[in-house]
Specification:
The complex is a heterodimer of chains A (350) and B (566). By secondary structure, chain A is α/β, with parallel strands linked by helices. Helices cover 43% and strands 16% of the residues of chain A. Chain A contains 12 helices and 11 strands. In chain A, strands 1, 2, 3, 4, 5, 6, 7, 8, 9, 10 and 11 form an 11-stranded mixed sheet that branches. In chain A, helix 7 packs across helix 12. The radius of gyration of chain A is 26 Å and the shape is globular. The termini of chain A are far apart. The longest helix of chain B has 72 residues. Chain B has 566 residues and is α+β, with helices and mostly antiparallel strands. In chain B, the strands form 4 sheets. Chain B has a 5-stranded antiparallel sheet with strand order 2-1-5-4-3, with helices on both faces. Chain B has 14 helices and 17 strands. The chains are: A alpha/beta (350), B alpha+beta (566). At the A-B interface, helix 1, helix 2, strand 2 and helix 11 of A face helix 1, helix 3, helix 5, strand 8 and helix 6 of B.
Chain lengths: 350, 566
């Protein structure tokens, strides 16, 4: 009798179980199908702080020409460098962008490579380190929203101290954004008249006028000014020039106290598992075609001798260019960032 | 109780096996078939849209490239700035080419310096304003494939203004003469997407998008999301579930992704399944509860019959089966009740018959007076008549009282007091017979006096002592006791006589247990037999004796007073 009972129960549960399974199976099947995630194994991974609008035409042309798919990881220069040093996922093949002054302290992350077009590169942008291929020449500029500026005269850093601009200045965090870091160096050298340590006095007064606003990413600066959230912004030339070129109410001001023009770089990561493709990428973006398009349509200054200066931008010879000491800057980076942060914090607590 | 469980299990199995499981299975199967049909419909719509898109694009591309090849053969295209007549002739040709197309295509003719010579478009897009010498975009592709018509997606990264470009670089010998280009813009191709409800995305192999029904599938760079590009037929994207089919077109230059939203279908499928399974669970619980109740109710009569049968098996025949319902069980119950009734009648008859037999046997037994005693007493009386006629006369009075008592058939049981009175007659006779040789002590508790005993129960005890106790002795003393012990009336007759040999004792004991007496020891046997007949086991006579140590007789009876039990 007990056996019969047991069998009956088993049969009963089997029937119930079958019904439940029948229902569950389809759903499980469905969810299992959709679990597949793309892998980055086939793609060239590029860590890149450039604006999206700048990246897309170049990357899509590279893909069409070489057939190598590219995966872009966007972010601030500091953030991406940190991710790369940490060995983040997906692993970096190419570090494309970021000014020399911010990337060179981390140059041990990059694989030595001399690009195919190195011989055509201007003397001042030669890859002297062996693993830091210069990509473009990036002067720092002040971006002005012409709808908001009214009668305020902006010709240089000094003009940013005007009380009418208090809280209206967009600047990135120099620790995270390479364009903001460039501006800090530019301020120190330009306002210290060659001696960066003399420039801190200006930085203090400037920070007061920031009114406690510091942006996390450089894109927030040019977007903020173009959208009218800020009247002026401290950014890099191309960031503003794109808007000026598309006839938006934006004007670029090259600081009369002096403009620092630091190149940005395109480097192959030591950790890259696509060395050959990475080399093709570096050759492509520093090649004549890409550099011509960058200068002709994307508002950046080429590092090559055989590419003419961008239309719509003043020739470099017209700019009040000043020089910095790259080694000194690299050496003092931590110290200066800390100093700036102190000044900024002081402004906040007031 | 096992049977009840089995019956209930059987019922549950019937319910589940014949009702719930088939119902649920059929519901589920129908549900799945329905869903399957819906999904199949979606899938067919999806693949139809995919094939339609691919066919339209391929047809368009092949027509355009044929036209380009035809135009290339058109003489004198690049021979300097065409005059009005030549322009008209070329335009006539272009219009004839493009009018055959279902979608509007813009035509561009560029010189070797990449300056536009002729166009029917309104404005020249940026990607055609490429300075000569820069190998970029469509120009790079055309120059790397001289003499071929090339296909290239341009500005796929822009929200608006992506275009499919078909172009040919025209060479005269080694020298580049110019370029012929058809542009199919996204806005011109938009009608392809409106052909079906399924969502369509047309990209190049890297995901840059030409056409898209929904911007939700695209990244900020207007690139098809990587999850979709890597996805399979079942695609989960943005919390929605899609059926996706992919197809390459135009020699792999384009990829067509068609996505059908099946989220609602799958959600309703899941909901339905969950509902059916919940219903199944509830019904199963209900069946377990209900069958218990139903079987308990329906089998109540059944178990009532079983219960009464169990009782009957244990000997209790007083129970009757009470069945209220009017069904088969009623018939069974009635039959059983009838059977038990007649059985009880039969047993009652048997009992009465046995009683009658016992009574008549008892009468016969109690009337058996020992003839030896009678003989001896009569001898004594004869002797006494000579020497002491007074004593003889008294002896005769005692004997006649004794005889009358023993012959009185009206009563079977008397009180101990009464029996004692008549024992005195016997003892008087014995005293005359034995004189000082016999001494008799009677010690009867007062409370035992009213207890009922069979008639003439004491006399045989004394008789037994006198008969076997003297042996060769001169003197014998007999002690008679009666008391109540644990609800029993115990009567003891002890003598200090010769006692019995072990053999005699066991012979006597055996004799007592026999149903019939063929020996001459009738006195003790009779009293034992009568007690057994009247009161049953374990009452009766017990003999304890040892040679030279006297004999003790113990009679045990239920202690009853007249009419009521003590």
């Amino acid at each position: 009798m007990k056996h019969t009972q047991g069998r009956n129960r088993i049969r009963l549960f089997r029937a119930l179980g079958a019904a439940a399974l029948f229902g569950g199976a389809a759903l499980l099947g469905l969810s299992a199908c959709s679990k597949s995630r793309p892998s980055s194994g086939e793609e060239l991974v590029v860590y890149c702080p450039h604006p999206q609008d700048f990246i897309d035409p170049i990357v899509s042309e590279f893909e069409a020409r070489t057939g190598i798919p590219v995966l872009i990881l966007s972010g601030g220069t500091g953030e991406l460098l940190e991710l790369m040093a940490r060995g983040g996922e997906p692993p970096c093949d190419i570090f494309w962008g970021g000014s020399l002054s911010i990337t060179s302290p981390q140059k041990e992350l990059f694989e030595p490579y001399i690009s195919a077009g190195e011989s055509e590169v201007r003397e001042e942008f030669k890859n002297t380190e062996g693993n830091m291929t210069r990509f473009t020449d990036v002067p720092s500029v002040i971006m002005v929203n012409t709808n908001l500026i009214g009668n305020i005269r902006i010709e240089g850093y000094e003009d940013l101290l005007q009380p009418e601009l208090k809280g209206q200045i967009a600047m990135g965090d120099p620790a995270a954004s390479s364009s903001a870091w460039e501006h800090l160096i530019n301020m120190l050298y330009a306002m210290g008249e060659g001696d960066p340590e003399q420039g801190w006095d200006y930085v203090e007064r400037f920070c007061e006028n920031l009114d406690g606003k510091l942006l996390e990413r450089s894109s927030q600066v040019y977007e903020g000014v173009a959208r009218g959230q800020y009247t002026v912004g401290l950014t890099f030339e191309e960031g503003g020039a794109r808007y000026a070129a598309s006839k938006e109410p934006v004007r670029l001001v090259y600081m009369k106290e002096g403009v620092l023009s630091t190149p940005d770089v395109v480097c192959i990561a030591k950790s890259s598992s696509h060395k050959e493709e990475a080399e093709q990428f570096v050759d492509f973006v520093t090649g004549r075609d890409a550099q011509s398009v960058i200068a002709g349509q994307l508002n950046r200054r080429s590092v090559r001798t055989d590419v003419s200066e961008p239309e719509g931008l003043p020739p470099k010879s017209m700019l009040p260019v000043i020089q910095d000491d790259l080694e000194l800057v690299a050496e003092r980076r931590e110290q200066w960032l800390e100093h700036f942060s102190e000044i900024y914090e002081k402004g906040l607590s007031k | 109780m096992k049977k009840e469980r089995y019956f209930r299990e059987e019922l549950q199995r019937l319910f589940i096996g014949l009702a719930i499981v088939p119902a649920v299975s059929i519901t589920l199967i129908c549900c799945f078939i329905f869903m399957g049909l819906l999904l199949k419909g979606r899938w067919e719509e999806n693949t139809a849209q995919r094939d339609y898109t691919a066919d339209r694009l391929e047809q368009l591309v092949s027509t355009c490239s044929q036209e380009l090849e035809r135009l290339e053969l058109f003489g004198g295209l690049f021979d300097g700035e065409p005059d009005a007549a030549e322009r008209a002739e070329i335009f006539e040709e272009i219009y004839r080419s493009t009018s055959g197309l279902d979608y509007e295509a813009e035509f561009y003719m560029l010189g070797a310096d990449r300056q536009v010579i002729l166009t029917d478009g309104s404005s020249v897009p940026d990607f055609l304003r490429m300075p000569s010498g820069v190998s970029w975009g469509i120009f790079a592709t055309m120059e790397s494939h001289p003499g071929e018509t090339v296909l290239r997606l341009l500005d796929g990264f822009r929200q608006k203004g992506a275009a499919l470009a078909l172009g040919r670089a025209v060479y005269s010998g080694e020298a580049l003469q110019g370029y012929l280009i058809f542009l199919l813009t996204d806005s011109a191709l938009q009608p392809i997407l409106e052909h079906s409800a399924a969502q369509t995305v047309v990209t190049d192999p890297f995901g840059w998008t030409l056409l898209s029904s929904s911007s939700g599938f695209l990244t900020d760079s207007h690139q098809l999301a990587r999850e979709i590009r890597a996805g399979g037929t079942w695609l989960s994207y943005g919390r929605q579930l899609y059926l996706m089919s992919v197809r390459s077109a135009c020699q792999g230059r384009l990829r067509i992704y068609v996505l059908s939203d099946v989220h609602n279908i799958v959600i309703s499928l899941a909901l339905n399944t969950a509902l059916v399974i919940t219903a199944l669970l509830i019904m199963t619980i209900w069946v377990f509860a209900a069958t218990r109740k139903v079987t308990e109710k329906k089998t109540e009569d059944f178990y009532r019959i079983l219960d009464v049968m169990d009782q009957g098996k244990k000997g209790n025949l007083d129970c009757r089966v009470q069945v209220e319902s009017n069904n088969e069980f009623k018939t069974i119950a009635d039959a059983y009740n009838g059977m038990i009734g007649s059985l009880r009648q039969q047993m009652e008859n048997n009992r009465r018959m046995a009683e009658l037999v016992a009574v008549s046997q008892n009468r016969q037994l109690e009337s058996q007076f020992n003839p030896h005693f009678l003989y001896n007493t009569l001898e004594n009386i004869r002797y006494m008549c000579r020497i002491e006629p007074e004593t003889a006369s008294r002896m005769i009075v005692c004997l006649s009282g004794l005889l009358r008592y023993s012959l009185d058939g009206s009563r079977t049981e008397v009180t101990l007091r009464e029996d004692l009175e008549h024992l005195n007659n016997y003892l008087t006779i014995l005293k005359y017979r034995f004189g000082t040789r016999l001494s008799c002590a009677i010690d009867v508790e007062e409370q035992t006096m009213d207890c009922m005993t069979p008639k003439l129960v004491l006399q045989p005890m004394i008789e037994n002592s006198v008969r076997y106790g003297f042996g060769n002795r001169e003197h014998l003393s007999v002690e008679l006791k009666a008391y109540i012990h644990e609800g029993n009336l115990v009567m003891i007759c002890r003598d200090d006589g010769a006692g019995m040999t072990q053999t005699a004792l066991s012979q006597l004991s055996r004799l007592l247990e026999q149903k019939e007496n063929k020996s001459r020891h009738s006195g003790l046997y009779n009293i034992h037999r009568r007690i057994r007949l009247l009161y049953g086991q374990p009452y009766g006579v017990e003999i304890r004796s040892a040679e030279g140590c006297g004999t003790t007789l113990v009679i045990t009876l239920p202690a009853r007073r007249e009419e009521n039990i003590c």
